[in-house]
Specification:
- By secondary structure, this protein is of the alpha/beta class.
- It folds into 3 domains: about 70 residues, Copper binding periplasmic protein CusF (OB fold (Dihydrolipoamide Acetyltransferase, E2P), Beta Barrel), CATH 2.40.50.320; about 100 residues, no CATH class; about 200 residues, SGNH hydrolase (Rossmann fold).
- The protein is about 25% helix and about 30% strand.
- The strands form 3 sheets. It has a 5-stranded mixed beta barrel with strand order 1-2-3-12-11. A 5-stranded parallel β-sheet has the order 14-13-15-18-19, with helices on both faces.
- Helix 4 crosses helix 9, helix 5 packs parallel to helix 6 and helix 6 crosses helix 7.
- The protein is globular.
- This is Lipolytic protein G-D-S-L family.
């Protein structure tokens, strides 16, 4: 247990909880879970951190998404679904068919595989993949008959479940879903499903600083370009998924930060941004009017203050990234109004003035003054898809990170 850390009460909302696993003690049979969407500003680390125990009876299943069936060397219980009408007819006739999703259960039985079909139409059977370097099909045994099955060329998925020893949790870095209950004042896991995550202690260059970017889908757009621009300068990371609104940022920052007090998990620079989800509005087609913001400006400023307090605990140099523009009014389901970003950036700058140590990365101004975005300004999609647009944004993010690290550029 970390010195000075206040942990939440055991078992508080952990049955069915999702989170990341840290500090596995195989001998003591416990680990720390950083739970999603929980935060308590009164504690040092937050209500998101829990101590979780396991027993000899705990069942641990490893879930991994595969690109093909390579490595599956023996028949496994499998479920296939996402079968359109023509292929369903072929399946019913015992002929070759295609599916969109395959769920494999190594070391299990057909009953377990059948649970994958709850609420879905599909088929369960013993599956053996085809020979080859990267097989995407094979045969499934249905009522004693071997029926050829393959996955669609596009948008298909393969999920592989296999048993894992509890002690092996110490050998990796995992995202977990727990099922269990409180026993004698401790939460004990009855079963858990874990997914392997990239372990920065194995993939990062230990000689370089670590950078975390917290942002919405715009940060996904420039992610590769920024990472490339910082190659050899810093280990570049971004939050898992979409950071969405400032309220979501407050709720999830502890999860994104991880076990930052431990070597290999520390952060040297953190860039953060929220806005495009906060400034969403309802739109009334009959009156051609926009409604209230998803997050009012005063709440937005309050959320930024809360998030800054969370991020500052890491000791990292912070960068606020200005919200990128809305090129033109969007009156669709995700309504956004041209000019709204300027209002939210002005509100954010009010907050940042109270924190002069935080650097500003003005992507809003950059986009407004660069001819690279002339075509982008003619439409109403806030995202950036062209390579040259992504490069300009990625280079700007890399430049801000370098300034934060005291380097030129």
């Amino acid at each position: 247990m970390l010195a000075g850390v206040s942990f939440a009460a055991p078992g508080d909302g952990l049955d069915g909880a999702n989170g990341h696993i840290f500090k596995v003690d195989a001998e003591g049979k416990h680990f720390e879970l950083l739970k999603e969407t929980e935060y308590d500003p009164k504690t040092d680390i937050g209500k998101s951190r829990f101590t979780v125990h396991w027993s000899d009876a705990t069942v641990v299943t490893r879930l991994e998404e595969l690109k093909n069936f390579a490595g599956i060397t023996e028949p496994v219980a499998a479920a296939f679904y996402g079968i359109d009408k023509p292929n369903q007819q072929a399946l019913e006739a015992g002929e070759a068919f295609e599916a969109r999703v395959a769920v494999l259960h190594s070391g299990s039985d057909l009953q377990a595989a059948g649970k994958s079909l709850e609420g879905k139409q599909g088929v369960v059977g013993w599956f053996a993949p085809s020979d080859g370097e990267k097989p995407r099909g094979g045969v499934i045994e249905i009522k004693g008959k071997a029926v050829p099955v393959s996955l669609r060329q596009r948008f298909s998925r393969i999920y592989h479940h296999q048993p894992l020893k509890s002690a092996d949790l110490a050998t990796g870095f995992w995202k977990a879903t727990l099922q269990g209950s409180e026993e004698d004042g401790k939460f004990v896991v009855a079963s858990m499903e874990v997914e392997p995550l990239p372990d920065p202690r194995k993939t990062d260059d230990p000689k370089l600083p670590r950078v975390l970017v917290i942002g919405d889908s715009i940060s996904m757009n420039y992610h590769d370009a920024a990472k490339e621009a910082l190659e050899g300068v810093a280990n570049y990371h971004r939050n898992e998924g979409n950071a969405f609104s400032s309220a979501h940022g407050v709720a999830n920052s502890e999860l994104w930060l991880g076990d930052y007090k431990e070597p290999g998990f520390q952060w040297d620079v953190i860039q953060f941004n929220h806005g495009l989800h906060d400034l969403k509005q309802t739109y009334d087609k009959a009156t051609d009017t926009f409604g209230e913001y998803a997050v009012p400006l005063d709440d937005y400023k309050a959320n930024l203050e809360k998030q800054i307090a969370i991020l500052e605990k890491t000791g990292a140099k912070l960068i606020w990234c200005a919200t990128t523009p809305v090129p033109n009014d969007n009156k669709s389901q995700y309504a956004r109004r041209k000019g709204a970003s300027a209002e939210f950036n002005a509100a954010a700058l009010e907050v940042m003035k109270r924190h002069p140590e935080i650097l500003i990365n003005d992507l809003y101004g950059l986009i407004g003054g660069s001819p690279v975005f002339d075509g982008w300004r003619k439409q109403n999609d806030v995202h950036f898809y062209k390579a040259e647009e992504k490069k300009v944004l990625g280079d700007a993010v890399a430049g801000a990170v370098k300034r934060a690290l005291g380097k030129s550029g």
